[in-house]
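Batch job 17 of 40 flagged for manual review because the log was empty.
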Amino acid sequence: MKVSSYYGLNRGQASLKFLDVDIEKDLKLFLNAKAIRSLGTPWSDHCEDLLSSFFNEVIQAIRNGEDDKALGLLTVLKEPNETHLGLSKGESDGRGLGPKKAREIWNAMRQSKAVKSGLLTDLEDTVLLIDGVSVDIVSDIITNIIRGPLITYTQEVCVDLGIPLVANVSSGPVWNPASLSWEIDFVSLPTPNDSKLILIPKEIVRITSDYDVDAYYRHFVLEKLRTEEIEENTALVHVLKSKKNKGKKKVYKTDLMAKYGTKKKAVVIEQTDKFPELLAQYKAANAEPSPTLSHRQIADAQDAPPTDWDTLLNSVLQLVPGKKEAYKYEDAIQALMEALFYPSLVHPTAQTPIHEGLKRVDIDFKNHAQEGFFEWVGRHYIAPYVFIECKNFGSEIGNPEVDQIAMRMSDKRGRFGILVCRSVEKEERMLKRCKAAAVDGHAFIIVLQDKDLVELVEAAKNPFTANLYELLDRQFKDLVM
């Protein structure tokens, strides 16, 4: 049973900001350090500081010969069953990261030349250079280190969605960057089936690590060894005789693998110690985090059906215009837009206070777009956040509604927003109102009616849609041209 079903949230994965995991089984997705860094929010910055603080403390202890200290820091790490991510089959059982595995990692790290030389600088490097570390182990380590921010995130989500919290639940080890030590506290957490649960933001998980031992081995390490063999003119070098390549020297990968071994990680570790520039080259080629998982990819990992677009849309369209169902309308719009705009827009927040609490924004999203319409808007205009104002009016919206969303914007918060309403009778007049706000420098506002939501949903339903946000492109062009 998934979290959404257990707590009766009436929302599917596409309309939830967290991973809707099974409360008993593990989901084969993993936390990704580069994905966390790329978010660029205060929350992710805090997580990044914790990761850096812990990893540096362990590395420094090993370099200083403080083996007992390093081992003590690592043995606290365990498989975090409360997140329900990992490789366990059946119920989450904690057979992964634990004291035995932590000791193995400690032993590999204290023998590593990369650790002692300073070549190993980031936690994710261990996937390539530390024996016994794999993508699931790194994910578990990350979860342990950022457990504090994840608990805070879980509490905020539970308050927003009405998920009951149980007081005085053991937090588990929490990393304190001030004391550089592990601490345990008692906190409030959800406890489905009497087991504590920690929720994970869906934008920080990936199917695998951004760093791949096989790719590093084949495309960097073996290529370097090939060059070395050719330069030294060893027995592995073949001189080609064909007319096209006559005289060209070649070394076959099969011969390299026979000479240096097929245990890829062992070869990678040995050759990176010998040629440390290889790691820098590989990291430079993989500097960007892999793309955020789409809802389709998450559904595939969950073995779940695709997004139910009709239900999301009808939840909006069936509401009666007017103040009576204004809050239901806002909630339905948030659910629909979270599904439509993810992964370009992430981490939606409802009723965000601004101007010291004097005003509120109905919904705001963090602009995390790496391509497409929202990336373009963020690159050419000011759009770190995208604001949504919801008007379930039974009558025409006018200047006051346009001014309302415009005056909530600033250079710091962003200058782009969407005004959602049921219908607009005089569209040309509405466009003039929005153009006036843009000319005055207040904001760039797109108006979406029911019919526009229908068009967006139809585009989202089609897996072959080349430009999901073609409607937004058209409306923005009308606004600025």
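Reviewer: the log was empty due to a logging misconfiguration, but the result itself is present. The first strand starts at residue 30 and ends at 31. Unflagging and moving on to job 18.
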